[in-house]
């Protein structure tokens, strides 16, 4: 199963992707996590991405496309994967389609988690508080100013992509304001129909 999860920052993509990955025994491919790991490991990709991520902007398509292409070539992706945070631009979506076509594969489901804008900031602030309470370190881009920029990038660059998949008749929207377990159930229902 090859699945794309869409949603603005704070919509719960990461949580749902992780659950689905466990249930279906396929990897969760989070480009945000991959990029943060690249920054931590100070790789060339990390060095190119760091300042851009700190501003809450999207890193260049070529960089992310290459990272995803390398990742889905790995053995554990053969039976499927859950894309969390990719594609985020029309150019990335086109690159993904081409990458999969080369292998004779395609995406099976494209799911959007819809959440009201006002709830997103509250969710981000709760994530920061929970992380700090657990003794962890908050994400550098989880602050009000950078978060506003991330929302703006989503609205301008990623939301138009929903139309790309809608036109292809592939998009399913799910109410992400519901409890986490209900959202998981709704996604599973889409996958079995
Ligand atoms: P969120 O969806 O909550 O904003 P992510 O962890 O998915 O957070 O992404 C964090 C940052 O990583 C983004 O703000 C962006 O700078 C970068 N990033 C992640 N995925 C992509 C992508 N597909 N294209 C461009 N930049 C990306």
The top level CATH class name: Alpha Beta
By CATH, the topology is Rossmann fold
Structural class by secondary-structure content: alpha/beta
Number of helices: 8
Average pLDDT value? Answer: 95
Instruction: Going across the biggest sheet, name each strand in turn.
Output: 2-3-1-4-5
* Bound ligands, named by name, code or SMILES: adenosine-5'-diphosphate
Tell me, briefly, the overall form.
globular
Give a quick account of the main beta sheet: strands, pairing sense, barrel closure: 5 strands, parallel
What's the number of domains? 1
The ordered H/E elements are: EHEHHHEHEHHEH
Beta-strand level of the residues, as a percent range? 5-15%
What is the name of the CATH architecture? 3-Layer(aba) Sandwich
Low-pLDDT windows of residues? none
Number of beta-strand segments: 5
Report on this structure.
- AMP binds at residues 31, 36, 57-59, 85-88, 92, 139, 150.
- With 193 residues, the chain is an alpha/beta fold.
- It has a single domain, classed as 3-Layer(aba) Sandwich (Rossmann fold).
- It is built from eight helices and five strands, in the order βαβαααβαβααβα.
- It has a five-stranded parallel β-sheet, sandwiched between helices.
- The protein starts with a strand and ends with a helix.
- Bound molecules: adenosine-5'-diphosphate (ADP).
- Adenosine-5'-diphosphate binds next to helix 2 and helix 3.
């Amino acid at each position: 199963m090859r699945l794309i999860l869409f949603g603005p920052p704070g919509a719960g993509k990461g949580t749902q992707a992780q659950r689905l990955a466990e249930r279906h025994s396929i990897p969760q491919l989070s480009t945000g996590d991959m990029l943060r790991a690249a920054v931590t490991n100070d790789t060339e990709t990390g060095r190119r991405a760091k300042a851009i991520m700190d501003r809450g902007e999207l890193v260049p398509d070529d960089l992310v496309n290459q990272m995803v292409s390398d990742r889905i070539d790995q053995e554990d992706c053969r039976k499927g994967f859950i894309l969390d945070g990719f594609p985020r631009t029309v150019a990335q979506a086109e690159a993904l389609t081409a990458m999969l076509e080369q292998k004779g594969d395609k995406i099976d489901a494209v799911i959007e988690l819809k959440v009201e804008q006002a709830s997103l900031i509250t969710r981000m602030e709760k994530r920061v508080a929970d992380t700090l309470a657990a003794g962890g370190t908050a994400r550098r881009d989880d602050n009000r100013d950078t978060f506003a920029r991330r929302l703006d990038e989503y609205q301008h660059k990623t939301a138009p992509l929903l139309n790309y998949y809608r036109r292809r008749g592939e998009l399913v929207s799910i109410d992400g304001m519901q409890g986490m377990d209900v959202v998981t159930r709704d996604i599973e229902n889409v996958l079995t129909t």
